[in-house]
Amino acid sequence: MAVKALMRAGDVPGLPVVCIDSGEDVAEIRDVIYDGAEHKLHGFTLNKRGLLAGRLKQVLLIENCTAIGADAVMINTVANLTAQEEAGDVVSPKNAVHVIGNRVMSANGSDLGEIIGVVIETDGEPSAVGYEVKKADSKETRFIPITEQMTISGENLLVPAELEPFITNDLAGFGASVATYRSGQLRGE
Amino acid sequence: MTTTQLIILIAIAVVLIIVAALAFRIRRRKGSVMATSSRFRRN
Q: Worst-scoring range by mean pLDDT, A31-35, A43-47, A50-54, A123-127?
C-alpha cells in the first residue's frame, strides 16, 4: 500500500515559485484552487515577489508544475506561467469559494467539526485528499479522508458514517488512513 | 492654530495614511484555499 506525500494546502500560499532553468524565484503562491467535486488541483494564483508587491496577472496551472515541495513550487521555465485570460475560468478566484469554515457532519448525525484546512497529495496528479477539522470545544484537530459520497446540505458538508474509523489525529498517519479507506472503496466494502 | 502645529498635524495624517495603505497591501497579499464547486456555500 503506497503512502503518498501529503501537505496542508494552507502551507502553500507564500511559497516561492522557482524556475529550474534559471534558479530564480519568479513569483509567490497566492491562492490554491482545486475542484470541489473531483478534488483535483487546478492551479495557483500568484503574487509578485516582495512584501509589498501586488498580484501577478499570470497564474500557474497544475500541469505546468514539476514539483510542489515544502519550501517551493518548481517549474521548468518562466514560460510555464500562463496569462489569466488564457487560463480562462479554471484558475480564477471569481469562480471559487473558500472552503475553510464549512461544518462537517457525519451521516449518523455527529458533528465532526469545522473545516480549518485542506490536505493535498503532491505526488503524481496533485489533488485534495482530506480535510482538517476542529470542534469548537476542542483544541485537537482531526483529519477526514475526502470521499466521492460527500454532499452538501445547507451549511454542512455531509460525509458517510463508515468514514469515521478512518479519521486520524495526526497528518503523519493520515496518508495510510486515506490509502486504507480508498482500497476499501475499490473493493466495495 | 500656528503654522508649526498645522505642519505637525498634516505630517501625522500622512504617516497614518501610509501605514493604513501598507497594512491594506500586506493583507491583500494573503492567499487562501479555494474550491471551484457548488458543493461549498459562500462564506
A: A50-54
